[in-house]
Amino acid sequence: MTFEKIEIPYLVRIHPGPVKGEITAPASKSSMQRAAAAALVSGGSSRILNPGISNDDQASIGVIEALGATVTKEETSGALLVTANSLQMEASQDKEITVHFGESGLGIRMFTSIAALRSGVTHIQGEGSLLTRPMDFFDQTLPKLNVQIKSHEGRLPLDIQGPLLPKDITIDGSLSSQFLTGLLLAYAAADATDVTIFVTNLKSRPYVDLTLKVMADFGLKVPENNHYESFYFGNSPKGKASTTTNTNTTTTTTYQVEGDWSGGAFLLVAGAIKGPITIRGLDPQSTQADKAVLKALADTGCQLSVTSDLIEIGPAAGDMRLKAFHFDATDCPDLFPPLVALACYCQGKTVIEGVSRLAHKESNRALTLQQEFAKLGVKIDLQDDLMIIEGGKPLKGDVTTHSRHDHRIAMAAAVAALGATGPVAIEEAAAVKKSYPNFYRHLENLGVTLSD
Ligand SMILES: O=C(O)C1=C[C@@H](OP(=O)(O)O)[C@@H](O)[C@H](O)C1
Ligand SMILES: C=C(OP(=O)(O)O)C(=O)O
User: Do 318 and 233 fall within a single domain?
Assistant: First the structure.
């Protein structure tokens, strides 16, 4: 499968000004990547509507192709059609193969356990920031499940060889939920029966809800979730796909990729700072962790109206100013960057909890936020697990920030720039392609002036 190429210059300059009009949030890479994995392991044919085009989405499609799936695009609807054998049945499962994950943390942590279902050797590779993110979970866990693994002191590249055999196991969920997501899918694919994954100290819990939902949507066997402490795969047969369409002799699972609350959070913050705007495509019933941005926004006193179809958002009414807020982002760490941009425009000190969750993202996000926002004249203190942002003062314009090769830092700087005293340049602006390649185009659609 080839995807459309989106060109973004090295430097994008954001000119301050209002946002107006209507925009549809992009596809969620969390939803799309899970759909790709579920389409692979559920076998048969699947139709993925509203597919994402981010680098991480593209990497996941490349991975399922490398693992034996065929992916084509339906020209009329843009849907992706995936056909796959179950991995254990795949003719090439004994062969030695190499899979590339680009920079996707979810991709590598989810698909490594799935690739471990193969009995051939799989070489697992990544690039950029992924090379320094911790993967020692696999060194500790996979050997207990009949999988041989060689890593580079807990970092990439990895070589693995299964087949993974589901067993009762205890894992540590404090670093990331993504490893659990992978094991849940791999256990389901291996038809785990009367087996439990025990988890200690699980963080980013709503992401596991999303995993379980996608598994149910694809008709995979869904374990019983006991308070996020254990996940029990019982004796019952596989689940039944909730959305299936029957075409003569074959059954196709149809899955609609959700709109992205993580990328959408930047649009919402833009609306609260310099709107009003209308945003479509964000489902208030979603299990996505970053839907929690609504709570922080409501606490600022911005104008906010949420329905199942659209969200209308604008600054505080009349002469009122946005108020500082207190928010716990431990289970939704990707909200730190948009909430920092929001906090800049809120009177007083905003406190965000969960700083320890930021150390191993595309950058060490607590530090990069502190350093890049300092260039805009914003003071951010880090005290243990708390981030404290002093808001309400004018943001410096005519400055140059750097994405630090982190998509969410670039988007946070861009949104913060909307109310600055002059244009704000962002170096290595193309980092946004990791999750939201159309981000700058969407800002332009909302009336923002950009220059190189
Ligand atoms: O499962 C997912 O889709 C994700 C889980 C979160 O990671 P952690 O579980 O490591 O917090 C989040 O930060 C990441 O961007 C996407
Ligand atoms: C950390 C992120 O993604 P991942 O862990 O999947 O690379 C992110 O999107 O902010």
Answer: no
